[in-house]
Amino acid sequence: MLELVKSGGWLMWPILLCSIVALAIVVERAWTLRRNRVAPGHVLAQVYQLYRRQQIDAAAIKRLREDSPLGRILAAGLVNEQREREVMKEAIEETGRHVVHELERYLNPLGTIAAITPLLGLLGTVVGMIKVFNVITVQGVGNASVLAGGIAEALITTAAGLTVAIPSLICYRYFRRRIDDLVVTMEEEALKLVEIIHDQRENNGEICP
Prior knowledge:
By secondary structure, this protein is mostly helical. It has a domain at about 10-115 and about 165-205. About 85% of the residues lie in helices and about 0% in strands. The chain is built from nine helices and no strands. The longest helix has about 60 residues, at about 145-205.
């Protein structure tokens, strides 16, 4: 492996660094964006039971915030449960924007790696070919070993760049799609909470807009 890196020239080092960073991001995001961590299916049911029993207090809201990103969104709604429907929705949406921003953490660097590593490989190809033509200019085509070294450097960096870029791009698109799915799920759960609370208030004879 080390010999392959050396054969590819100095541009192999930034490509190798990009591969390490990309792998770390992929592992971290795969762990963080698990559905049962971000939007557990039992959270809304638990909140509803607590609400029916009138056990929603500061401690319960704090536990809910710490439980999951979905819990943070639902907690924002519960804090404003006595307010109008639109005010409650606005509080949920504001917290939701912060949650989505956190879910998207590190995705921009991953997308950047997917974009720049083919360019680094292409640059390595150009550098390798320049070396080949310099050898041809000085020594002619008789020095096959030097020519082969330049061509190998060009091909190795190109292959390395693509090897890093392709999985990085696939993972980037996958995580984007997963976040979109999670956001839709959290929106649905938050809207259910709003309807539950306001329907309950209407049934109890409270005036709701």
